[in-house]
Inverse folding.
């Protein structure tokens, strides 16, 4: 998948490097638990906060 400039993405992928998903996009690497917690909350959160 490609991100637009300034678009953000939460990912559980184990590979990330600058420009991997598009120029100017931001990918936040999360554990599966944090990804699930963030999906429920609708924003990036720490799984331990729920």
């Amino acid at each position: 998948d490609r991100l637009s400039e300034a678009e953000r993405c939460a990912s559980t992928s184990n590979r990330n490097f600058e420009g991997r998903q598009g120029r100017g996009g931001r990918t936040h690497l999360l554990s599966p638990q944090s990804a699930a917690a963030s999906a429920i909350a609708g924003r990036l959160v720490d799984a331990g906060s729920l």
Remarks:
- Strands lie at 8-11, 26-29.
